[in-house]
């Protein structure tokens, strides 16, 4: 299995990890980001799954990012959220 730790050096992962720790939520990078890293493709979005409320996590990460995060789109029917941010 490929070591992907070098792909996780973006500041968003530090913020995400800190907020997840504060909320005591297990959080994992999944989906297309992982696939693209393994295949050495550009990664344009990040899929996160958490044991807990993904909506709460997205809202707290949004707050922590301040002006680097423009919006959180919440999809309550699915219990998911999408966070828009810039690095």
Automatic annotation (TrEMBL):
Cofactor(s) required for function per UniProt: Mg(2+)
Key words, A-Z: Magnesium, Metal-binding, Nucleotide-binding, Nucleotidyltransferase, RNA-binding, Transferase, tRNA processing, tRNA-binding
Pfam families membership: PolyA_pol
Gene Ontology molecular function terms on file: metal ion binding; nucleotide binding; nucleotidyltransferase activity; tRNA binding
Entry's Gene Ontology BP terms: tRNA processing
Database matches in InterPro entries: NT_sf, PolA_pol_head_dom, tRNA_nt/polyA_polymerase
Record domain Poly A polymerase head: where: 27-84
Family listed: Belongs to the tRNA nucleotidyltransferase/poly(A) polymerase family.
Protein known as: tRNA nucleotidyltransferase
